[in-house]
Amino acid sequence: MRKRLVCFLFLSSALITLTGCGVERGSMKLANEAAVSERPDSVASATPVVQGTVTPVPSSKVMPTDISAPTDAPLSPAKSPSLAQTLVERYHKAVPTKWGENIPGVRTHLVTQDKVIALTFDACGGKEGSGYDEKLVDYLIKEQIPATLFVNARWLAANPDIFAKLAANPLFEIENHGTEHRPLSVNGRAAYGIAGTKDVSDAIREVTENADEIEKRTGRRPLFFRSGTAFYDDIAVDIAHDLGFQLAGYNVLGDAGATFNTEQVYHALIKARSGSIVLAHMNHPEKDTAEGVMKAIPVMQKAGFRFVHLSAYPVE
């Protein structure tokens, strides 16, 4: 009887132990299944979080793995050797369907109801003029009027000391007016008698080489690009966006390539409205741009307008 009792107690203890192991293993299996159910079905299905401002890419365009979507820091082929080749492969067969100053992707006004205006002045260089409108700039400094200056590589090369002073002045925001002051195209299309960039590689150089030079001299890479003549085709627009740049158009023609007289400049500027982007020039001191601007600004201020950098507000 005693032996039977000992055997019974031994068997009961063994059953309890085995049952406990089964419960523990079952609990572990359930926990593992729950953990798996909380994960994506595969690593490839996980969507990474990308920091910065990302421009959506149309579904017909596949972003290669070695190029980031446009961000607040425009890209440079000089720092990423594969970048230019990737863009050439992406666009070399693309055929433009649009051409002009105000095609989709070119930003023409500030997104705001505030009574603010962005004054932008191009410095073109070369045969388009490498002069410096000191009267205009001195007036902006004296009156503390912020402005965005679009500087071409040829103007920069002709005026390095002036450029350094302007770039060091917080009143002025320095942006990119291209390397050779050409319309931005992929087939050489001309505007105002100026031949456009001839292919994808040429368009990339036009955008990035001057941006590299400005960055080298200032420590800041331009955020905006404006082509020579402000003309683009739609493929070139996509290329500039893939390089991370915003394209700066305008909705107030301030001096028509520095051809307006004082009264024409004045009347153009006072038509500006909330969010207007004004295009004028600072490379023709012999023209009337300065006089027209100096006449218009007090009138605009009296009407309640103030002046801001192009980057102060979103643009579209």
From TrEMBL:
InterPro entries: Glyco_hydro/deAcase_b/a-brl, NODB_dom, Polysacc_deacetylase_ArnD. Keywords: Signal. Residues 1-19 form the signal peptide. CDD domains: CE4_BH0857_like. Gene3D superfamilies: Glycoside hydrolase/deacetylase (3.20.20.370). PANTHER family: GLYCOSYL TRANSFERASE-RELATED (PTHR10587), SECRETED PROTEIN (PTHR10587:SF134). The lineage of its organism: Bacteria, Bacillati, Bacillota, Bacilli, Bacillales. Residues 115-316 form the NodB homology domain. This is Polysaccharide deacetylase family protein.
